[in-house]
Specification:
The chain is an alpha+beta fold and 190 residues long. 23% of the residues lie in helices and 26% in strands. The chain is built from four helices and eleven strands. The strands form three sheets. Strands 3-4-8-10-9 form a five-stranded mixed beta sheet. A four-stranded antiparallel beta sheet has the order 5-6-7-11, with no helix packed on it. It has a two-stranded antiparallel ribbon with strand order 1-2. β9 and β10 form a beta hairpin. It is globular, with a radius of gyration of 19 Å.
């Protein structure tokens, strides 16, 4: 992978229905940027005083773009906003094992252009379907966007039910009308 193009690759792959190519790209980028002998992602940006034209031709400069790409990718993994629609995706690219029994995802005050959003997703002990999740979402009012809450069951089976919203494959859609006047909603998914 090249960190020079990873931002664009991540931006395309997070828009796809299948989240796994996004995860593979993000993992590769993190391995590259967090290599124990490499404290930053090298990139040939011309920053004064620290680019290959001055000093060693092997001394590349650290740039903000390179250093923030893994953080941006991790943010999109948990909270991604569509640029052309009023839609916020939660947990869109979270790996399957994060949804296994005993696991929890907790995010506080994640900034979005619709206001901050916080949520906690906890996997439930055995249910009659064999799996389940409890999710609590907190938003500022008004929150004028639909929330697409993604759940990736470790067994790969489709979701069966949700106490709120509309169920679509591995996603519960919470329309902004449902959120109107609400600061906190809770739902159970199986």
């Amino acid at each position: 992978t090249s960190n020079f193009m990873s931002h664009g690759i991540l931006a395309v792959r997070i828009r796809q229905d299948d989240y796994r190519p996004f995860l593979l790209t993000l993992y590769a980028l993190c391995c590259y940027t967090m290599d124990s002998g490499n404290w930053y992602s090298p990139e040939d940006a011309m920053l004064p005083g620290s680019y290959p034209g001055e000093g060693s031709p092997y001394g590349w400069s650290a740039v903000v773009n390179s250093e923030l790409q893994p953080a941006l990718g991790l943010r999109w993994l948990l909270c991604y906003e569509e640029h052309d629609h009023a839609v916020v995706h939660l947990q869109k690219a979270a790996p399957k094992h994060w949804f296994a029994l005993g696991e929890r995802i907790r995010v506080e005050n994640c900034p979005t252009r619709f206001g901050p959003v916080s949520w906690v997703m906890e996997s439930l002990p055995q249910t009659k379907t064999g799996r389940g999740w409890h999710v609590s979402i907190q938003v500022d009012t008004p929150f004028n966007a639909d929330i697409f809450l993604h759940i990736h069951p470790p067994d790969g089976e489709p979701l069966q039910s949700s106490s709120l919203g509309r169920l679509e494959k591995a996603c519960v859609i919470l329309p902004s009308a449902l959120l109107a006047g609400q600061r906190r909603i809770e739902l159970k998914i199986s």
